[in-house]
Amino acid sequence: MSVVDGSFSVEVTVDDGRGGNATAATTVNVLPQVEPRPQREPTAALWLLALVVVAAIGLALLWPRIRSRLGGE
Fold first, then answer.
1. C-alpha distance from residue 9 to each of 15, 23, 35 (Å)
2. How many Å apart are CA 50 and CA 18, to the nearest integer?
3. Interatomic CA distance for residues 30 and 52, integer angstroms
4. Closest by alpha carbon to 51, among 61, 63, 59?
5. Which of 18, 46, 64, 66 sits CB 3.0–4.6 Å from 42 for a disulfide?
6. Could you write out the DSSP letters of every residue in 2-53?
């Protein structure tokens, strides 16, 4: 058995006692164990960004009405 680049291979040969044998081989990839990242609550900066986006969308939708009330065309 050898470990190379995160994988190992195994080869097994079995003698049946009557002059014959069987060979089996396999390779297994070993992935490093990764710790799951804990989920975090949205930060204040993210909430502020969401508020700015919603305000910009609201202003864009209401702009024609605001302009007409201010005496624009």
1. 20, 13, 26
2. 76
3. 46
4. 59
5. 46
6. EEETTEEEEEEEEE-SSS-EEEEEEEEE-PPP-PPPPP-PPPHHHHHHHHHH
